[in-house]
Design goal:
Elements: E1 4-5, H1 11-20, E2 22-24, E3 30-32, H2 36-47, E4 48-49, H3 56-70, H4 78-93, E5 98-106, E6 115-119, E7 122-127, H5 132-145, E8 158-166, H6 169-192
Antiparallel strand pairs: 1-4, 2-3, 5-8, 6-7, 7-8
Length: 194
Protein backbone atom coordinates (compact mmCIF):
# COMPACT_ATOMS: atom_id res chain seq x y z
CA UNK A 1 0.00 0.00 0.00
CA UNK A 2 1.26 3.46 -0.88
CA UNK A 3 0.58 6.53 1.20
CA UNK A 4 -2.63 8.28 0.21
CA UNK A 5 -4.79 11.18 1.30
CA UNK A 6 -7.47 10.47 3.87
CA UNK A 7 -11.04 11.07 2.76
CA UNK A 8 -12.71 14.36 3.61
CA UNK A 9 -9.58 16.54 3.76
CA UNK A 10 -8.37 19.21 1.37
CA UNK A 11 -4.55 19.23 1.58
CA UNK A 12 -4.22 22.00 -1.03
CA UNK A 13 -5.56 24.47 1.55
CA UNK A 14 -2.70 23.64 3.91
CA UNK A 15 -0.14 23.44 1.10
CA UNK A 16 -1.20 26.89 -0.08
CA UNK A 17 -0.44 28.29 3.39
CA UNK A 18 2.95 26.59 3.23
CA UNK A 19 3.58 28.01 -0.26
CA UNK A 20 2.92 31.53 1.05
CA UNK A 21 5.35 31.14 3.97
CA UNK A 22 8.29 29.62 2.12
CA UNK A 23 11.38 31.31 0.81
CA UNK A 24 13.70 29.96 -1.87
CA UNK A 25 17.22 31.39 -2.01
CA UNK A 26 19.17 31.70 -5.29
CA UNK A 27 20.80 28.30 -4.75
CA UNK A 28 17.35 26.66 -4.50
CA UNK A 29 17.48 26.09 -0.75
CA UNK A 30 14.03 26.25 0.86
CA UNK A 31 13.22 27.80 4.23
CA UNK A 32 9.90 28.37 5.91
CA UNK A 33 9.10 31.58 7.80
CA UNK A 34 7.61 31.65 11.27
CA UNK A 35 6.25 28.73 13.22
CA UNK A 36 2.97 28.22 11.35
CA UNK A 37 4.59 25.70 9.00
CA UNK A 38 5.14 23.41 12.01
CA UNK A 39 1.40 23.34 12.65
CA UNK A 40 0.78 22.90 8.94
CA UNK A 41 3.22 19.97 8.88
CA UNK A 42 1.36 18.33 11.78
CA UNK A 43 -1.95 18.87 10.00
CA UNK A 44 -0.56 17.31 6.82
CA UNK A 45 0.71 14.31 8.82
CA UNK A 46 -2.85 13.73 10.02
CA UNK A 47 -4.20 13.91 6.46
CA UNK A 48 -2.04 11.07 5.10
CA UNK A 49 -2.64 7.33 5.45
CA UNK A 50 0.79 5.75 5.78
CA UNK A 51 1.76 2.09 5.46
CA UNK A 52 1.08 0.29 8.76
CA UNK A 53 4.82 -0.28 9.31
CA UNK A 54 5.66 3.43 9.24
CA UNK A 55 6.04 4.58 12.86
CA UNK A 56 4.58 7.90 13.94
CA UNK A 57 7.98 9.59 14.35
CA UNK A 58 9.03 8.44 10.90
CA UNK A 59 5.78 9.61 9.27
CA UNK A 60 6.38 13.08 10.70
CA UNK A 61 9.92 13.02 9.34
CA UNK A 62 8.68 11.93 5.92
CA UNK A 63 6.22 14.83 5.81
CA UNK A 64 8.98 17.28 6.76
CA UNK A 65 11.44 15.90 4.18
CA UNK A 66 8.75 15.92 1.50
CA UNK A 67 8.05 19.61 2.19
CA UNK A 68 11.73 20.52 1.84
CA UNK A 69 12.25 18.24 -1.18
CA UNK A 70 9.27 19.67 -3.09
CA UNK A 71 9.58 23.20 -1.71
CA UNK A 72 12.01 24.37 -4.38
CA UNK A 73 9.39 24.01 -7.09
CA UNK A 74 7.21 26.83 -8.30
CA UNK A 75 4.32 25.54 -6.20
CA UNK A 76 3.82 22.59 -3.86
CA UNK A 77 0.59 20.82 -4.82
CA UNK A 78 -1.04 17.73 -3.33
CA UNK A 79 -0.10 15.41 -6.22
CA UNK A 80 3.59 16.36 -6.26
CA UNK A 81 3.76 16.33 -2.50
CA UNK A 82 2.12 12.88 -2.21
CA UNK A 83 4.48 11.47 -4.87
CA UNK A 84 7.43 12.57 -2.74
CA UNK A 85 5.83 11.15 0.42
CA UNK A 86 5.41 7.81 -1.40
CA UNK A 87 9.03 7.84 -2.58
CA UNK A 88 10.27 8.48 0.98
CA UNK A 89 7.90 5.88 2.43
CA UNK A 90 9.15 3.22 -0.02
CA UNK A 91 12.75 4.17 0.76
CA UNK A 92 12.12 3.68 4.48
CA UNK A 93 10.33 0.34 3.98
CA UNK A 94 13.33 -0.98 2.00
CA UNK A 95 15.55 -0.64 5.07
CA UNK A 96 15.94 -4.13 6.51
CA UNK A 97 14.87 -4.66 10.09
CA UNK A 98 17.69 -5.24 12.57
CA UNK A 99 17.71 -6.36 16.19
CA UNK A 100 17.92 -3.60 18.81
CA UNK A 101 18.16 -3.98 22.58
CA UNK A 102 16.87 -1.45 25.11
CA UNK A 103 18.33 -1.85 28.60
CA UNK A 104 16.58 -0.47 31.66
CA UNK A 105 15.90 -1.19 35.32
CA UNK A 106 12.72 -2.51 36.84
CA UNK A 107 11.74 -2.46 40.50
CA UNK A 108 11.57 -6.20 40.94
CA UNK A 109 13.12 -7.86 43.95
CA UNK A 110 16.63 -9.21 43.39
CA UNK A 111 15.18 -12.53 44.61
CA UNK A 112 12.97 -12.74 41.52
CA UNK A 113 14.47 -15.49 39.36
CA UNK A 114 15.93 -14.42 36.00
CA UNK A 115 13.59 -15.13 33.13
CA UNK A 116 12.94 -14.62 29.44
CA UNK A 117 9.50 -13.65 28.14
CA UNK A 118 8.36 -13.57 24.50
CA UNK A 119 5.59 -11.09 23.78
CA UNK A 120 4.41 -9.42 20.55
CA UNK A 121 7.43 -10.70 18.62
CA UNK A 122 9.84 -9.21 21.16
CA UNK A 123 11.94 -10.81 23.86
CA UNK A 124 12.12 -9.44 27.40
CA UNK A 125 14.99 -10.67 29.54
CA UNK A 126 15.22 -10.03 33.28
CA UNK A 127 18.49 -10.52 35.15
CA UNK A 128 20.21 -9.50 38.39
CA UNK A 129 23.34 -8.25 36.66
CA UNK A 130 24.00 -6.05 33.69
CA UNK A 131 25.30 -8.12 30.79
CA UNK A 132 29.00 -7.47 30.13
CA UNK A 133 28.38 -6.13 26.61
CA UNK A 134 26.40 -3.21 28.12
CA UNK A 135 28.64 -2.38 31.11
CA UNK A 136 30.99 0.08 29.41
CA UNK A 137 28.23 2.12 27.72
CA UNK A 138 26.06 2.02 30.84
CA UNK A 139 28.93 3.40 32.96
CA UNK A 140 29.49 6.20 30.44
CA UNK A 141 25.81 7.17 30.45
CA UNK A 142 25.58 7.16 34.25
CA UNK A 143 28.71 9.30 34.53
CA UNK A 144 27.48 11.70 31.84
CA UNK A 145 24.08 12.15 33.49
CA UNK A 146 25.24 12.13 37.12
CA UNK A 147 24.81 15.90 37.44
CA UNK A 148 21.15 15.71 36.51
CA UNK A 149 20.21 12.61 38.51
CA UNK A 150 18.20 13.39 41.64
CA UNK A 151 19.16 10.07 43.24
CA UNK A 152 21.74 7.40 42.69
CA UNK A 153 20.81 4.59 40.32
CA UNK A 154 19.10 1.90 42.43
CA UNK A 155 21.24 -1.14 43.21
CA UNK A 156 18.38 -3.37 44.37
CA UNK A 157 16.51 -3.39 41.04
CA UNK A 158 16.75 -5.95 38.27
CA UNK A 159 17.98 -5.27 34.77
CA UNK A 160 15.43 -5.66 32.02
CA UNK A 161 16.21 -5.87 28.32
CA UNK A 162 13.72 -5.62 25.49
CA UNK A 163 14.98 -7.02 22.18
CA UNK A 164 12.98 -5.85 19.16
CA UNK A 165 13.28 -5.82 15.36
CA UNK A 166 13.16 -2.34 13.83
CA UNK A 167 14.39 -0.21 10.94
CA UNK A 168 15.74 2.64 13.08
CA UNK A 169 16.89 3.33 16.63
CA UNK A 170 13.92 5.67 17.21
CA UNK A 171 11.45 3.02 16.05
CA UNK A 172 13.23 0.41 18.18
CA UNK A 173 13.03 2.59 21.29
CA UNK A 174 9.30 3.13 20.78
CA UNK A 175 8.66 -0.59 20.21
CA UNK A 176 10.79 -1.61 23.20
CA UNK A 177 9.13 0.89 25.55
CA UNK A 178 5.69 -0.20 24.31
CA UNK A 179 6.43 -3.87 25.03
CA UNK A 180 7.87 -3.00 28.46
CA UNK A 181 4.75 -0.95 29.23
CA UNK A 182 2.60 -3.89 28.17
CA UNK A 183 4.39 -6.38 30.43
CA UNK A 184 4.34 -3.94 33.37
CA UNK A 185 0.61 -3.48 32.81
CA UNK A 186 0.08 -7.25 32.84
CA UNK A 187 2.12 -7.53 36.05
CA UNK A 188 0.13 -4.72 37.69
CA UNK A 189 -3.19 -6.32 36.73
CA UNK A 190 -2.11 -9.69 38.10
CA UNK A 191 -0.99 -8.10 41.39
CA UNK A 192 -4.16 -6.00 41.68
CA UNK A 193 -6.54 -8.91 41.18
CA UNK A 194 -4.76 -11.60 43.24
Amino acid sequence: MCANWKEGFEPNLILEQINIGRKIDPSGKVTFEGLSHLLDKTTLSNMVNFHKEIPLDESSGIISKALFNTGGRKKIDKETFLQEVNRLEKKYLKIPKSPFVLLSLVSLSRNTPPRRIRINGSTITISNNIPSRFQKENSKLIKKSSGSLVRKVPTNYQYIRATVQARSAADAATKALDVLDLIRGIWNLSLTFK
